[in-house]
Amino acid sequence: MILKEKDATPNGNGRGGDERAFYGHKQEQDVAFQLRREFGEHKQIHVINDLRIEHRGERAQIDHLILHPYGFIIVESKSIAGEVTVNAAGEWSRSYQGNWMGIPSPIRQAELQLDLLKALLSDNVEHFLGKLLGVQTQVAHREWRTLCAISSTAILHRDKMPKDVASRVVKTEFVASKVKELVGSLKIGFLKGRAGFFAGELDNIANFLLEHTTQVGTATGGGDSAPATPEPAAPVAEPVPNYSVTPTPDTSSSPTEPPAQVQGLMTCKQCGEASGLTGMYGQYGYYVKCGHCSTNTSMKQSCPACGWKSVRVSKDGPEYTGICRKCTHQFLVFRQE
């Protein structure tokens, strides 16, 4: 199940200094697409894209986090064109237009993200895990894995990589298969005594992380990380929102925004009613629930100024404001009566 989708578009216009961000975002979209195609309907394997965490004075953005009954898998996406090698010390190099240069290790980056995630969950374990015989259960002894998903056009010299690194580097089209391999058989794993989560605990962890990343994203304004090098990538269709998870009324708040320009308010996409709507927050962001036909309507909409589809919705008291990521135009999306 996809609990948080990848943002539809990157920041910037894809030119000049933003070109690297554009191709990096496309790589992350490609990986998110592969994970959605494989686990979109899976009830025991959850995927959170663009997870932002902050803990103990440190921040990290995790490209893709997979939660399963026995643990966690972090997938770091890297847009790399050309050839890739890793020496015995774990140092990465890649070629681009015939020139070789060193690059930071995405495996090490994922490991640091994993350490911060483990610390965040360990320090808040009482919020989502129960007690066994009166003793608080922990997350540290669950399975913690990292992967790096490289662009499909890259050439990987696996024969020159340490085995531990080679086993964790996959091309985009194989990332879902590798995740399935790491998760293994859920039934057999239980019989073999793999440490797992009790019923409902995995959902509790997911809800905790979704709430946490919403708070961090609102406080920092979001932002995507840049890749190592640019490369062309096929477009990925924007997923259709699915509100299958039971939501709860939104009570969060965001930092004060500049005054918004009123352009119009929400109506139910099913019956067209503008009254009796309730602002909510679910796994795909802000939306309204119709009190007449119970239909959910996403607050995500095109910018009325430039038509750009990537609009960030924030909440300040009873007002929900849309801010265009392209032209920074602001407009009132919905006001809770």
Explain what this protein looks like in three dimensions.
- It is a single chain.
- The chain has 337 residues and is an alpha/beta fold.
- The chain has two domains: 2-220, no CATH class; 248-335, no CATH class.
- Helix content is 23%, strand content 30%.
- It has six helices and 20 strands.
- It has helices at residues 19-39, 106-123, 163-166, 175-183, 186-191, 201-220, and strands at residues 2-4, 46-55, 58-68, 71-78, 83-86, 92-96, 99-103, 131-132, 135-136, 143-150, 155-156, 169-171, 248-249, 261-262, 277-282, 285-290, 296-298, 311-316, 319-324, 330-335.
- The strands form five sheets. The protein has a six-stranded mixed sheet with strand order 1-2-3-4-10-12, sandwiched between helices. It has a four-stranded mixed sheet with strand order 7-6-5-11, with no helix packed on it. Strands 13-15-16-17 form a four-stranded antiparallel sheet, with no helix packed on it.
- The chain is globular, with a radius of gyration of 21 Å.
- The two termini are 33 Å apart.
- The model is unreliable at 11-17 and 222-264 (pLDDT under 50).
What topology emerges from the helices and strands here?
Blueprint: E1 2-4, H1 19-39, E2 46-55, E3 58-68, E4 71-78, E5 83-86, E6 92-96, E7 99-103, H2 106-123, E8 131-132, E9 135-136, E10 143-150, E11 155-156, H3 163-166, E12 169-171, H4 175-183, H5 186-191, H6 201-220, E13 248-249, E14 261-262, E15 277-282, E16 285-290, E17 296-298, E18 311-316, E19 319-324, E20 330-335
Parallel strand pairs: 1-2, 4-10, 5-11, 10-12, 14-20
Antiparallel strand pairs: 2-3, 3-4, 5-6, 6-7, 8-9, 13-15, 15-16, 16-17, 18-19, 19-20
